[in-house]
User: Which sequence fits this backbone?
């Protein structure tokens, strides 16, 4: 097994798969292909697979706590989830919002909107280009 797999979410998936005998499409996929990506986990969780759903819920908890801590400090108007994880859509966003609401201060929670980036993986590049244009060209 690739050692990179044993960190972060990969370790969580492996622990979930070995801790139960429950049938799982996630386990079946891994046994067949000997690899998984975050996309596979999210896709399989979207099919209501118990192990994949547990992994997504744990990711949502950890990310929700981190985002709540940042929001409690910075009080943003909007939190935009971007990058590859943004392709997960509601399978991640719904539990993430639930966890965020558990840890964000009420005043912060009332004033912030959490959405998925509509530009996907290109959001950072497009934002950087816009920032450069605004600050250096205009």
Assistant:
């Amino acid at each position: 097994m690739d050692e990179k797999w044993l960190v972060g979410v990969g370790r969580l998936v492996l622990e979930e798969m070995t801790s139960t005998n429950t049938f799982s499409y996630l386990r079946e996929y891994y046994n067949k292909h000997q690899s998984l990506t975050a996309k596979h986990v999210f896709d399989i969780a979207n099919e209501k697979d118990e192990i994949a759903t547990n992994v997504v819920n744990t990711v949502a908890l950890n990310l929700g706590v981190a985002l709540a801590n940042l929001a409690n400090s910075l009080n943003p108007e909007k939190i935009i989830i971007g990058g590859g994880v943004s392709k997960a859509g509601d399978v991640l966003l719904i539990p993430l919002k639930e966890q965020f609401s558990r840890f964000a201060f009420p005043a912060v929670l009332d004033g912030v909107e959490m959405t998925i980036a509509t530009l996907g993986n290109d959001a950072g590049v497009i934002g950087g280009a816009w920032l450069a244009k605004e600050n250096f060209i205009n």
About this structure: The first strand starts at residue 78 and ends at 81.
